[in-house]
Prior knowledge:
By secondary structure, the protein is mainly α. The protein folds into two domains: 210 residues; 227 residues, no CATH class. The protein contains 16 helices and no strands.
Amino acid sequence: MPADHAAEETRKYGRSAAQLTIALGVAGVLTYLFFALASRGLDKDQYGEIVVLWSAVFLLSATLFRPIEQLLARTLAERDHAGAETGDALWAAAKIQGGLCAAALIVLLALQGTLQGNMFSDDPGLYWALVVAIAGFACAYYARGFLAGRGQFFLYAVLLQIEVLLRLFLALLVAVGIASGTSLIAIGIALAPFAGLAVIPFAIRRGRPNAAEIDPENSPLGGELTLGSGGAFAGAVLLMMLSEQVLVSSGALFVRASEGAAAAGFIFNMLMVARAPLLLFQAIAASLLPHLTRLRARGDEDSQDAFRNSLTSTMLLIAAFATATTIGVILIGPQVMQLAFGDKFTYDRLGLAIVSVGMGFYLVAASLNQACLAQGQARRAAIPWVICAAAFVAFNLLYDGNPFRAVEFGFTGAAILLSGMLWWVYSHPHPNVEDAIEPGSGREIQARLDALDEIT
């Protein structure tokens, strides 16, 4: 590829990535607004049921379907770069995703009575919303992998905005009194992933990059695609992603099991103190990894200094933000929470402060994780995530006291432990060549998608 053309491709990639980062920031704000409207438009028990539905949908879909999104994105990017055929990869990924979806739906249908009775208070509408949403996200994550692998980040961003806006619009109808109850909001959660697929015809019409350079007879990356073909790096990224879901999404499910739907809605709102900044930070993280990767790839001393300075500056900014947030929630936190989510719940300052401290450490851990990935330490960085997620689950199961405090202390304790362990991994690097991330590579795209997990 000529140097001028390569430079232009790099600039196009950078512009697209910037568009995605901005779109993700907007999606984070709109998701926060979605929950604010739902909390105001529903009573405590109804809102709790929506929280349980949301948590179950995103915990299951991230666990089952994001691996294919990342694997497909990475494979398409690498094959397009090498001028290799991609049809077999698309078909193989579709078969794997379809098989996972079918298996999930069979299990959900077999457990209908248990799930509908224990999770959704015998509301069949919420149960079927879960089933439809799982099928929808199987398609949506496949589409996202296709768009990311082809470098069509603008359409990826549009897909996300369509999903978020549909959910928000239906929640708004309930909040202003045009509709009532959980049904319309549940329909939004169920149908949003299907609505986002409207961008796919435009993606197909654009075709693949560098299509003229494809040489099917000389395809260096034409091996069969399987779920394990991403290797240890893919497994490490998957473990990080699943552990994050446990830390930020499972708390409401623990409380639902012991205290009921309304309590699940309350603890979900408490954790929004952490989730809202996390949604915005992950948009930044989507750009932090490529920046650090490029600095490390240069290899000179100035670039290494810039690497450390970028990470240090990010963590100092997080520390200042977390400190200000903690002071703010101590002073006016309960009033702000009721202003945002309505006066159905009474929020205590101590709980909000605990979560705010945890938020700061969690964002520091997320920054350190990006640095570890850029260093080529994906497998070493995955170990702290798994340990902390397991510790969070164990603490919530064994804690004999206030279940809200169990989630709050569990999250903050796990965040402190995670940041400390990842700092040790970062400051004592032992890079593995198999975990190395080349700037602009499919592996970088895969890691970027992991950074977007909580938003999408």
